[in-house]
Structures are given as C-alpha cells and as structure tokens.
Specification:
By secondary structure, the protein is α+β, with helices and mostly antiparallel strands. Helices cover 36% and strands 24% of the residues. This is FAD binding domain-containing protein.
Length: 299
C-alpha cells in the first residue's frame, strides 16, 4: 500500500554507513534524532506500542562487514554484533565453546524474529534474554567511540548507564575447554520462564556456568538472573556460598535464600516480585542439585 505525503514526511531517512567511524560520525552529528538499527525487531515493537518515538534518522549497520560473523581469535570466540540469533544458534563454534549462549538464543522469540534479530541488539537492549548467558560466560564487550576501542564485561554493561555515543563492535567469549587430564568437568544451565510455553517475553531467566569435580564439588561458578525488564545481575552471594562445596542439602537451602535476597526483579502487571524471586531461586537450586553425582541419576 502506497504511503501518502504526510506519512512520507514522517518517515525517517535511512543511512547506510560503510565503516564504524562513519556510523559513529552520523550518530554524533544527529544525536538523539538518530538511532542505530540492526534487525530492528525491538525498535519496530516499540514504535508500534508507542513506547519510543520514530527518529528522524536510522543508521543501518548492515553494510559494515566487520560487524557480522563468528570466529575464533586470541583465545576467544568473537561474535559480531550484527550476527543474527539464528546464526548464533546454528554456529558450531558456539555449540562447542559456549552452548549456554546457543540455548539462550534458542529460547528468544520465534524463528522468524531470530532470522532478523541480532545478538548485538539483544545486548544493547540491556535486559535481553541473552545477557544473563553472556554474564555467566564472562563475556567481554568491545565498543568504539569514534577514536578508540573501549572494553567492559557484560556484567559491567548490564549495570551501567553509559550515554556517550559509541558502537558495539564485538562480543567476546573466553574459550574454555575441558582438560582431559583433569577430573573436573564444565556444566551449563539456562532456564527461561514466561507466560506461555513458547514465543513469549520472559518473566525470569537464569544462566549458570560452572565446573565440578567428580564428587560434585564446585570449583568454578557463575550465576546470572534477569527476565522481563529486570536488569540481569550475577548472584554473587549464592556463588560464594557454594564454591568449594557440593550442591546438596543445607548448602542449596542457603543458596536459595541468597538468591531471594539478591535478585531484585522489576515490577510489572504480569507477576509479583515474590513469584519472580522464588522462581529464580528454585531454578538456580534445581540446576545445581542436578549436578551432584548422587542426584544426577534421579533427575
């Protein structure tokens, strides 16, 4: 259907920079009148809901080749922020080194959205369902401000309020592999609870990466929780209680209480804070309980 003149005048100008520097220059020139676009799935939802105004300029990042792709470099898996969620889900490198992220993106929206939506868009959203997984994986984010590269962890990004124009240029996940000579093994868990079984916004998301000895003693542990509009955060108190111990009995009860205390969900009409807190705590405890050799056969 053709647009009338009024609609055409309201439509934003679309720009396709060929380099990171050119994109940042456009954003610096136009400020709040311009937004970066990747898959635009979130922006479209916000415009339709009236929660964000249509900008005068859209800076389409799709023509910057260096912002796409998944590769191994310098001891890490580097993911371009323009890489689609579908490509993340089907990546052999991620399946081998970061199956937690593969599981997380598999649970985001439906296939048609994942074909357009990008990992970078989910990260920049700050409360995207992939962010808890990236925090648990100790991922590092690389940004460019037009003159230099800036680095921070996914955990730092989630809790920051950085407003200076900059562009996400890479998401880097450390390559960690099981040592065949060691008795310790890595494990991962990702759980999302929504209002229905599939294609639903999350109420609670939990991501866990850990390492355990043969008897179940936890030698490494990173737990992150988010969901809905809640800023993802590490459950450091539960981690401290469980490290060096087996995930059984009293230890898991203490971890449950620690998550209840530290997880602070953002209120919305769909679920009470107490429901979200208990759900997050139960998901964490159930995932860790299943890692105990004495419980694995019962799960």
């Amino acid at each position: 259907m053709a647009l009338n003149q009024e609609e055409l005048l309201r439509s934003p100008a679309v720009w396709q920079p060929r380099s990171i520097e050119e994109a940042i220059g456009m954003k610096e020139e136009w400020g709040s009148a311009a937004v970066y676009t990747a898959g635009s799935t979130l922006l479209r939802t916000q415009w339709e809901a009236g929660t964000a105004a249509m900008p005068r300029h859209l800076i389409d990042l799709g023509s910057i080749a260096s912002l796409s792709g998944i590769r191994e470099e310098e001891g890490a898996i580097a993911i371009g922020p323009m890489t689609t969620l579908t490509d993340c889900r089907s990546s052999g490198l991620l399946a081998e080194h970061a199956p937690l992220l593969v599981d997380a993106v598999r649970n985001i929206a439906g296939w048609s959205v994942r074909n357009l939506a990008t990992l970078g868009g989910n990260v920049v959203y700050r409360v995207g369902d992939a962010v808890p997984a990236l925090i648990a994986l100790n991922a590092k984010l690389e940004w460019h401000d037009g003159s230099r590269l800036l680095f921070e962890s996914a955990e730092e990004w989630a809790s920051s309020s950085y407003a200076v124009p900059r562009l996400l240029t890479s998401i880097r996940i450390p390559c960690e592999e099981d040592d065949p000579t060691s008795n310790t093994k890595r494990f991962f868990a990702f759980h999302k609870v929504g209002r229905r079984e599939a294609f639903t916004p999350s109420l609670v998301t939990v991501a866990i990466q850990g390492e355990a000895e043969e008897d179940g003693t936890l030698t490494k542990l990173r737990i992150a929780a988010g969901g809905g509009q809640t800023t993802p955060v590490r459950m450091t108190r539960a981690e401290e209680l469980l490290l060096g111990a087996k995930p059984d009995g009293a230890g898991l009860q203490q971890a449950f209480e620690a998550v209840l205390e530290q997880y602070e969900p953002r209120t919305d009409p769909f679920a009470t804070d107490l429901y979200r807190k208990r759900t997050a705590a139960n998901l964490v405890v159930a995932a860790l309980w299943s890692q105990s050799p004495s419980n694995a056969s019962k799960g």
